[in-house]
């Protein structure tokens, strides 16, 4: 394997293992992203309800500009769905499932600081500080309505960390191959410091991101899974293995990732774990029907409990 191919493999694996997008992580679905970008950057159409705009709109939150996209009509009996992309991905990455879901739901997505069309963070971010931005986004797009958070990868981890402290607002979760709650420990155990070649590059690159590297400069410490009560939760893990680039460590890393998905079930006493058998890390791209059905189920269950 030449240097360029080897580096591309390392980056691709880093996206999966860290649960974060690194440079080049969007290449496999670039055509979908390019087509979606037009839909998510259209000028917003305002309605009488301040939060019920359609299209993309920027809000100032604590002095930083945050890019938000919403579609679909608000329904009094259904929560607002908030989509949360993985690290390295802007909101346009989820435009396809946002459009599908908005047929009968109010659906919004946003670029976290450092991603997409939002401002860069003014320093290192924490789970708490990125959660404050999420609260402000929810206040603007949902008002007093409850929300269902549907997060992929790093977006799933943030959603699962956020929900226990915001039970009054978050009434359901869908976690799509969410970053493991013990990702740093998993990586340190799975790839030793003595590793060389692509595995060593993967280890160093991923740990740097987890410790506050670009693009979001977000510190992602390991931690216990806390309960958000008995809200409906669906955890979906990928079914296709794709870690052949580090054959000495791939099987252990895959097992640790699966253990992390099982651990996320602890966020609710009403959680369900399933496997998207034909998907790699980007479940909502590889099998969008699986993602859409899970989000709609959780949203309907949350509405029935309201």
From TrEMBL:
The species this protein was found in: Streptomyces malaysiensis subsp. samsunensis
The protein's name: Alpha/beta hydrolase
Gene Ontology MF terms: hydrolase activity
Residue ranges occupied by any AB hydrolase-1 domain in the UniProt entry: 79-187
Gene3D superfamilies in the record: alpha/beta hydrolase
Family matches, as Pfam families: Abhydrolase_1
Low complexity bias spans: 34-43
Superkingdom, taxonomy of origin: Bacteria
InterPro entries xref list: AB_hydrolase_1, AB_hydrolase_fold
Region span, Disordered: 28-49
Keywords (A to Z) from UniProt: Hydrolase
